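Thread amino acids onto this structure.
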């Protein structure tokens, strides 16, 4: 049995948008950094996330993502 037989076809109804995927990534990364025990500038992280999401929204509205 080849490795290709185990690949599940992409279900387009389950595909999340770039914005949804990035938002989920940021939530998980923020949680990871907050629990790492190291210094973490939550305010800067939130500002950077917000800026990126706004730019992604513009790109999405223009049909790029």
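Threaded sequence (65 positions):
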């Amino acid at each position: 049995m080849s490795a290709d037989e185990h690949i599940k076809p992409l279900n387009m109804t389950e595909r999340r948008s770039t914005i949804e995927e990035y938002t989920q990534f940021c939530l998980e990364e923020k949680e990871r950094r907050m629990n790492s025990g190291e210094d973490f500038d939550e305010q800067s992280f939130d500002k950077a996330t917000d800026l990126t999401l706004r730019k992604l929204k513009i790109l999405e509205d223009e049909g790029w993502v």
